[in-house]
From TrEMBL, chain A:
Keywords: Cell membrane, Membrane, Transmembrane, Transmembrane helix. Its main location: membrane. The chain crosses the membrane at residues 6-21, 28-45, 75-96. This is Na+/H+ antiporter subunit C. Belongs to the CPA3 antiporters (TC 2.A.63) subunit C family. PANTHER family: ANTIPORTER SUBUNIT MNHC2-RELATED. It is found in: Cell membrane. The keyword Zinc-finger does not apply. It comes from Shinella kummerowiae. It is a multi-pass membrane protein. GO terms for cellular component: plasma membrane. Pfam families: Oxidored_q2.
From TrEMBL, chain C:
It comes from Shinella kummerowiae. Its main location: membrane. Keywords: Cell membrane, Membrane, Transmembrane, Transmembrane helix. The chain crosses the membrane at residues 12-29, 35-56, 68-91, 111-133. This is Na(+)/H(+) antiporter subunit B.
Length: 125, 779, 139
């Protein structure tokens, strides 16, 4: 079962990295979303994949009766999804505000903090 | 030591620091008169340690202390023998006078309280340094003196020269401190003890150790920088930028002697070897000559004294390393004598500066009428410095010549150095003590009159002490100098020299010194011109070298920064992901840990493949999107596909969450993007695209291979079994995922929801920065 | 999107979805669901309400500032953990009581309180983000 999923995860990572290597923040933002999904799938596949049996203990039993999906990566991913969404929203607002103030989403044109020809720091005491 | 005295001694070490805490408040309350109550602190310390005099004079060593970090063998413990006691008494005794002097000198200064605080902190550090038994504690106090002296030298921080001097002192002595630390750790390694008192019995092992030479160089690196030995002498004259009480205290009597203290302390352990007896006298002698010549060159009273201090420190180092019984006794005598007369002369120089507004010897003259008490103090101190009988300085100088005089080439060379150095210092002593007071009255910026008692008590007492010790030398030898010499030598010694001149080689050399000194004094202006020419011919000095090093450091830092932080995002990103790709692909290549060739599984349901294919299509559409709407829709497609995959693989919780999140993402993106006049079009040229694509594909391949390798390995189900087994029985929940989130790993989740909340706050504040600037409305 | 039908239906839809989100939250311990999912469903409900009737209506309906809701959620989540202090057991130990109300045994636990905290944090924080982004041209 793993092979198609492995290939899909590879595609996710490659696309995310390619987008994040762009100078343009909007594309970087899209890359971050893809990276988040890629990482989640990676975690999921690391815990091995089983089909269609959610890790829920049936009523009247104390332990799962059949082999169920691995609950641990699911718990990790569940919070990761929410966190990566918060992160995405934060980045989006940053990009938005940067665009409003600087009129660009090209990272290289944002040189307010690091001006292009920064003078030497003073060598006095 | 009884528990009572132990507690009191501990209190004595803490008292200066406690005083530093209350000093600013006290000064605010009492003004400059705060000096009187504050001087009680060092006085109490002085009296307390004076109480040990009888025991130490009997040859006993007083130790005590408390465990601090027992697991590292670090204790706050002290070792009081002749050497530490002499230093303790000098530090607290002169400290008392300095506090009083500072009360008068900085009267009305806005930050006088801060000054008292600094000087008391320094005093506490210095007391700790000379009394520490554990040499790790010694190092801590050593560094504390560097830091407090930085604060004191830079006290007048509005002036650049002051800041430079402070930084220079900190870098030179702090850098030396690092050498010392390495040396002490090596010493710990070699002997396996951390107590100086125990170290004394390991002398033979240390000297025979293969690490002896590196050890020696490291220790000397610390001692020579602290005690301003050539070529590290330059920071001491620069430190004269500090207010005069600081110069009189730190740079004559106490801190600069810390290096000498260390050498004397380690003399019984490390001394006696050819390396020790070559390096120490050689550097000491050179420092003596350089310091004396440079002192002649100056016209500023404080600088003249500063360079003679350099020379005196050289003399002390030379004597410590010379390696004869008399040399040790001479070092002991000169150590005490120098602290007394140099402290006094510095205070006199400050007093003259305070009353006349200048320290330039060529602009001073005829002050004897206006400042008779100061004149007397200066004269008494100068007589001691010049080494004339019956002053203490005479004893020291006689003993020096007794120690050095000999027939060998080595003895002759060092005797010559001593005579020249002492002769030059003789001239400087009288230049400082006589020139400003005698001769015609010269107009000065301020109208001079005798300073207040606070200012002349200190120099007067120190100068008189020099005379008293000289006359009653037998008592001083029994109580102070003999134990001191014994501690330096590491075996019992008695100092017997007295102020009554006795005919011999030493007296002859003394006479020669005096004659040379008088000649130089008479032709001082010419000698000064000659020394100036000499220095100008050489041109470059370590002081200028320091500036060059500092500038070079800034330039190097800037160029490294420009290289690693160009401020171009794609450079950072490219570097990061290139390293990620390498980290994923290189180790399997090196260790041959590639995954086995996978087989395409036979029984994959069609709908799963279809969902995956759809996800790939979505990703492709995101990459290729040329307008906002396409990008948003494409992003939604891949997200929903991921949600479907979760659902298909038995993770309904994940599927629902992912589904909701994707919906919200699309909504939010649509809200923002419709107002953002931007297209997600790829602006890269083909030349940029290819390397980016290579890195991206390498990363993707790396993760895929890694995952393949992992899934081919054995799966450890211990954790999964644990959660499945106890989810219902202990945590009473059937949904194992939810139980893990809210119960088993609840603390983790608590952290995560805190992050979610903080993100919300951050977004709100980013928006409000703009809003607040405009209308102050609620976002 | 802002049609009459949508505007009329939106409040009812929102109410239903919020109710559903509470249901998902409460059954989370034994069936698929829980605080995160429930919270996200509630946020979606509020987002729909906001798109239909404007953010002012959402703010009014919420009564509290969304970040205050979020902070309250974090507070009760911490409280759920700290309650174990009273019973001298380690931090975050689950505590259960089974009071019988109207003849039905109802299991109550600190774990459930914690999950409710998660729910409120998610609702508050993400609603706040969504409202901030919806709030007009100058954001």
């Amino acid at each position: 079962m793993e092979l198609p999923l492995v290939l899909l995860i590879g595609v996710f990572f490659a696309a995310a990295v390619y987008l994040m290597l762009s100078k343009f923040l909007v594309r970087v933002l899209l890359g971050v979303v893809l990276l988040g999904n890629g990482v989640n799938l990676l975690l999921f596949a690391n815990g091995r994949v089983l089909r269609e049996v959610p890790p829920i203990i049936p009523a009247g039993h104390d332990v799962p009766v059949t082999l169920t999906a691995n609950p641990l990566p699911q718990a990790l991913i569940l919070t990761a999804i929410v966190i990566s969404f918060s992160f995405f929203a934060f980045l989006l607002v940053l990009v938005y505000r940067a665009y409003q103030d600087l009129g660009t989403d090209n990272g290289n044109e944002m040189r307010v903090a690091e001006p292009e020809n920064d003078p030497l720091p003073p060598t006095g005491y | 030591m009884t528990p009572d005295t132990m507690g009191l001694t501990f209190l004595a070490f803490c008292l200066p620091f406690l005083g530093a805490l209350v000093a600013p408040a006290l000064t605010r309350l009492l003004g400059h008169n705060a000096a009187w109550p504050l001087a009680l602190i060092p006085l109490a310390v002085f009296l307390h340690f004076l109480g040990f005099n009888a025991e130490v004079a009997r040859g006993e060593i007083v130790t005590g202390g408390y465990a601090w970090v027992p697991s590292y063998n670090v204790s706050f413990s002290w070792l009081i023998d002749g050497l530490s006691l002499a230093f303790l008494l000098l530090i607290s005794g002169i400290g008392t006078l300095i506090v009083l002097y500072a009360g008068g000198y900085l009267k009305g200064h806005r930050h006088q309280g801060r000054f008292f605080s600094f000087i008391l902190m320094f005093m506490g550090s210095m007391l700790g340094l000379v009394a520490s038994d554990s040499f790790l504690m010694l190092f801590v106090f050593w560094e504390l003196t560097s830091i407090t002296s930085f604060l004191l030298i830079g006290f007048d921080h509005a002036r650049e020269a002051s800041r430079r001097a402070a930084l220079q002192a900190l870098i030179v002595t702090g850098g030396g401190g690092l050498f010392l630390l390495a040396g002490l750790l090596l010493l710990w390694n070699v002997t396996d003890v951390t107590q100086l008192s125990l170290l004394m019995s390991f002398g033979a092992e240390v000297r025979a150790s293969p690490f002896y030479l590196p050890l020696l160089f490291l220790i000397l690196g610390g001692a020579f920088t602290k005690s301003a030995q050539f070529p590290f002498h330059f920071w001491l004259p620069n430190a004269m930028e500090a207010p005069t009480p600081v110069s009189a205290y730190l740079h004559s009597a106490t801190m600069v002697k810390a290096g000498v203290y260390l050498l004397m302390r380690l003399n019984p352990v490390m001394g006696g070897t050819p390396a020790w007896e070559t390096i120490l006298p050689a550097f000491g002698g050179l420092t003596l000559l350089v310091g004396a010549v440079l002192a002649i060159r100056q016209t500023d009273l404080k600088l003249m004294l500063a360079y003679t201090t350099v020379a005196s420190l050289g003399l002390l180092v030379m004597l410590t390393g010379f390696g004869s019984e008399y040399a040790v006794a001479a070092a002991a005598l000169y150590l005490v004598a120098h602290s007394l007369f140099k402290g006094a002369l510095f205070m006199v120089a400050g007093l003259i500066d305070h009353e006349t507004g200048t320290r330039d010897i060529t602009k001073l003259g005829g002050l004897r009428g206006a400042m008779p008490v100061t004149f007397l103090a200066a004269l008494l101190a100068a007589l001691s410095m010049a080494g004339l009988p019956p002053f203490f300085g005479f004893l020291a100088k006689e003993e020096i010549y007794v120690a050095l005089a000999g027939g060998s080439l080595r003895a002759i060379a060092f005797t010559a150095a001593a005579v020249i150095g002492n002769g030059l210092m003789f001239a400087v002593a009288f230049a400082v003590a006589l020139k400003p007071f005698l001769g015609k009255r010269v107009e000065t910026p301020k109208h001079p009159h005798e300073g207040p008692a606070l200012l002349w008590i200190g120099p007067m007492l120190l100068a008189v002490k020099g005379l008293v010790i000289g006359i009653f030398s037998a008592v001083a030898h029994a109580l102070l100098t003999s134990p001191l010499a014994s501690a330096i030598a590491g075996k019992p010694q008695t100092v017997t020299i007295s102020a009554i001149p006795h005919v011999g080689a030493a007296l002859l050399l003394s006479a020669l010194t005096v004659a040379f000194g008088i000649v130089i004094f008479l032709v001082l202006d010419k000698a000064r011109a000659a020394a100036n020419r000499l220095v100008e011919d050489i041109g470059w000095g370590p002081d200028r070298g320091f500036d060059q090093v500092m500038r070079g450091l800034v330039r190097a830092a800037v160029s490294v920064n420009r290289l690693t932080q160009p401020g171009r995002m794609e450079v950072y990103m490219t570097a990061t992901f290139a390293v990620v790709a390498l980290a994923l692909l290189v180790p399997p290549a090196v260790y041959g840990e590639w995954p086995r060739a996978p087989v395409w599984p036979a029984n994959i349901p069609f709908h799963e493949l279809a969902v995956m294919l759809l996800a790939v299509l979505g990703i492709g559409a995101v990459l290729a999107a040329n307008n906002r709407l396409t990008a948003i829709v494409a992003l939604g497609i891949q997200g929903f596909c991921v949600a479907l995959l979760f659902l298909l693989f038995g993770a309904p919780d994940l599927a629902f969450t992912q589904f909701m999140i994707e919906t919200l993402s699309v909504v939010i993106l649509a809200l923002a993007m419709t107002r953002l006049k931007l297209t997600p079009r790829d602006h890269r040229s083909l030349r940029e695209k290819i390397p980016d694509a290579v890195i991206a594909i390498a990363c993707g391949l790396g993760f895929a291979l890694y995952l393949l390798r992992v899934t081919q390995g054995r799966f450890d189900t211990a954790l999964t079994d644990f959660f499945n087994l106890y989810s219902k029985t202990i945590a009473h929940g059937a949904n194992v995922v939810n139980v893990i989130i809210v119960d088993f790993r609840g603390t983790d989740t608590l952290g995560e929801i805190a992050v979610v909340m903080v993100t919300g706050l951050a977004i709100l504040s980013i928006i409000r920065i703009r809003k607040g600037g405009k209308a102050g409305g609620e976002a | 999107m802002n049609t009459l039908i949508f505007r009329t239906v939106a409040p009812f839809l929102t109410a239903l979805m919020v109710l559903f989100s509470l249901f998902v939250l409460l059954r989370g311990h034994n069936e698929p669901g829980g605080g995160f999912i429930g919270g996200l469903i509630a946020v979606s409900a509020l987002a729909i309400f906001g798109i239909a009737n404007g953010i002012a209506a959402v703010r009014k309906a919420l009564w509290f500032h969304p970040m205050a809701i979020s902070a309250f959620g974090l507070f009760i989540a911490c409280l759920a953990g700290l309650l174990s202090m009273v019973f001298a057991v380690p931090f975050m130990t689950g505590l259960w009581v089974y009071p019988v109300i109207l003849g039905v045994e109802i299991p109550l636990s600190t774990v459930m309180l914690f999950d409710a905290g998660v729910y409120l944090v998610v609702v508050g924080a993400i609603t706040s983000i969504a409202l901030a982004l919806e709030a007009g041209d100058d954001l």
